[in-house]
Amino acid sequence: MIANKPSRVAIIGAGSVGSTAAYACTLQGCASEVLLVDIDEKMRDAQVLDLQDCGFVSDTKVRAGSFADAGAADIIVITAGAKQRPGESRPELVGRNRAILASVLKNMQPIQPDAVLLIVANPVDALTSVAQQLSGLPKNQVLGSGTFLDSERLRAALADRLGVAQTAVHAYVIGEHGDSQVVAWGSATVGNTPLLQLPGMAGVNLPELAVSVRDKAQSIIAAKGATHFGIGTCVASLCAAILNDKRHVRPVSHYIPDLDVCIR
Asked: Where in this chain does the record put each Lactate/malate dehydrogenase N-terminal domain (predicted)?
């Protein structure tokens, strides 16, 4: 990004995930402007009015925009998509959300060549691959939120068990954001100590813990219909890292040439 150039994050989809991501971006002040885009203009405008009431704690400006406006943004976050139904797997969403993604990308053309496209809609790994094919952007500028949220859920569970800060836990969920994801137990540490050497991990059923992390979203969806606080915060963190070149290491969905897929 050019120094001192006003930065813009466009968020496609003003529903629960998109509006929460906009809220988190506003509170973190990660961009000069957050642009909210949705085909439901009445709902989009109401979300913008609500978000503008946060202006006294942030210099980030929030406004409504069009798909063409979004195509000129520095980061384009796509949250638009059909909601995951209780008991529905992420791969089952592919057919419904592929068509939505294709329409969004078509309506944003031409996308400015330096833009970073961040896919959040599920199934995120498959849709990131679709976006790389259809957006016209280089593959290294099209990312998905991947297993970032899963990794944070894992770290939160471990931090709670061990009585340490979540930021002290370095552990990753890798692979698909979904049913086949796996925990990289062997590389996990707390501080500089291997996780599995800690006394507090004695007797922990690792497969059971991994399943509880994997299925946390389903538990939330069953009770309230959607998850949005965690992923909204992840989106804001990723946008801030990209715009400010923070060089954070995040488990995002990206293209792996040897496998010819997008995964983490």
From this structure: 8-144
Q: Are residues 123 and 235 in the same domain?
A: yes
217 and 104 within one domain:
no
260 within some domain? no
19 conformational bin, left if phi > 0, alpha if psi -120 to 50, beta if neither:
alpha
Q: Respond yes or no: is residue 177 known to be catalytic.
A: yes
Q: What is the mean pLDDT of residues 221-250?
A: 94
- Whether 18 has a binding-site annotation, put simply, is yes
- Average pLDDT of the segment spanning 217-244: 94
Greatest pairwise CA separation for the chain in angstroms:
56
Q: Is 38 annotated as a binding residue?
A: yes
Q: Is residue 245 part of a domain?
A: yes
Taking only the tens place, the pLDDT of each residue in 34-48 is 999 999 999 999 999
Report whether pLDDT(151) > 90.
yes
- Counting every residue, how long is the chain? 264
200 is in an annotated binding site: no
Residue 245 reports pLDDT greater than 80? yes
The pTM is what?
0.92
Task: Say if residue 24 carries a ligand binding annotation.
Answer: no
How many domains is the chain partitioned into structurally?
2
Same-domain status, 200 and 239: no
Instruction: Please name which of 79, 104, 42, 52 lies closest in space to residue 232, comparing C-alpha atoms.
Output: 79
pLDDT at 176: 86
The catalytic residue among 170, 177, 228, 248 is: 177
